[in-house]
Amino acid sequence: MGTVDKRLSDAGLVLPTAASPIANYVPAVRTGNLLFISGQLPLKDGKVAFEGHVGNTLSIDQGVEAAKLCALNIIAQAKSALGGDLDKVMRVVKLTGFVACLPGFGQHPQVINGASDVMVQVFGDAGRHARAAVGAPSLPRNAAVEVEAVFEVA
Amino acid sequence: MGTVDKRLSDAGLVLPTAASPIANYVPAVRTGNLLFISGQLPLKDGKVAFEGHVGNTLSIDQGVEAAKLCALNIIAQAKSALGGDLDKVMRVVKLTGFVACLPGFGQHPQVINGASDVMVQVFGDAGRHARAAVGAPSLPRNAAVEVEAVFEVA
Amino acid sequence: MGTVDKRLSDAGLVLPTAASPIANYVPAVRTGNLLFISGQLPLKDGKVAFEGHVGNTLSIDQGVEAAKLCALNIIAQAKSALGGDLDKVMRVVKLTGFVACLPGFGQHPQVINGASDVMVQVFGDAGRHARAAVGAPSLPRNAAVEVEAVFEVA
């Protein structure tokens, strides 16, 4: 069991099965030492666990939970792309978090902290990343949150 | 005629003239082996061919057509940046697709598949990319779709 | 005083204090020769100087001012990440500008030109970048604009 796998286990975090896109794109592409990971939804057992607008039909806390699920799906995709070895993750470089919300909502950072916290919990200091958090009127399958990532890998 | 040019021709796809931004930015910047391509609108003969909100004033099919046009404009910009030689494209690394839509819309992936399909049609397996598809309340010039890209180039 | 610092000074531009995120992310991450800079808000003296929707509660000109502030905050973060030496910036590779707006707004490019112009004013030709400008129903702290960046650095 790798160091990162042990951290996941110690934290009681279970990676979801990496979802396969049913289209002409892939979950992750490596170029040089960068791994670009496709935007991940808050999937649990293959279903979107949080639908709707944060700050309206969903609470901030539910948005945070959705962002955590997006982060776990990102890590699952990275693990799959790295042949199962998460210890090859040198750095979480960048997260971009999209929050489904209505005009007037301003707490995107609090929501996306759910994803950021998972990264640091799992990768330690290597999990500290650059980030943007923004709003969207809606997201695929009416998901509450979508997060994409760039990782530096060995 | 290069391999990729031939594929374009065989598929009956005609690249638009690469549009020049009238501002202090450029259509594409190369850094190392990465080519960052500016967000492209569904331009045809210099005009936005699809305005409005997908799922509201525009159908999904029209959104798909808009995404295809964005993809062709991306390829045109890449060709221009690569001195006319599209065979220098090693990999389509990442597409980010923005769909103009209203709250409640959830079919962004179907729309952006229009762009993803063009990439695989033109570049083959090298056209398979990481991707994010998200919504926006509006896009420049009221375009229905905007797609930006990162390519790995020789 | 470095070349870029002198340009800033000659242009009468004053960099804000680089804001520290109070969360598990960081203002900028370097990987290889790329510096990914977190999304910056139009902060002045630590406060969001422009709140609301461009084209509705804010004019285009106010949006442009907001975008300029975002650009100055990006440069401040880059300076901090580069140990104070902005002459290490080889190229502004990419800006992504998010404009808080309502459906029907189409002038995102004019707004984000505020950020693009600052980059060229400060870095000269090295400041010409790839760019995407898109809309968002709302942004963190109800900011009118958010801009993130990728720089190539020495």
Summarize the structure in words.
The structure is a homotrimer of 154-residue chains. Chain A has 154 residues and is α+β, with helices and mostly antiparallel strands. Chain A has a single domain (3-13, 32-153), classed as 60s Ribosomal Protein L30, Chain: A (2-Layer Sandwich). Chain A is built from three helices and seven strands, in the order H-E-E-E-E-H-E-H-E-E. Chain A has helices spanning 3-10, 60-81, 108-123, and strands at 28-31, 34-40, 43-44, 47-48, 89-100, 130-136, 145-153. The first copy, chain A, has a five-stranded mixed β-sheet. In chain A, strands 3-4 form a two-stranded antiparallel sheet. The two termini of chain A are 18 Å apart.
If strands are numbered along the chain, what order do they take across the biggest sheet of chain A?
1-2-7-5-6
Terminal CA distance of chain A: 18 Å
Structural class of chain A: alpha+beta
What CATH architecture of chain A would you give? 2-Layer Sandwich
The CATH homologous superfamily of chain A is termed: RutC-like
The most extensive interface, with participating residues per chain, is: A-B, 30 and 35 residues
* Rounded mean pLDDT score of chain A: 96
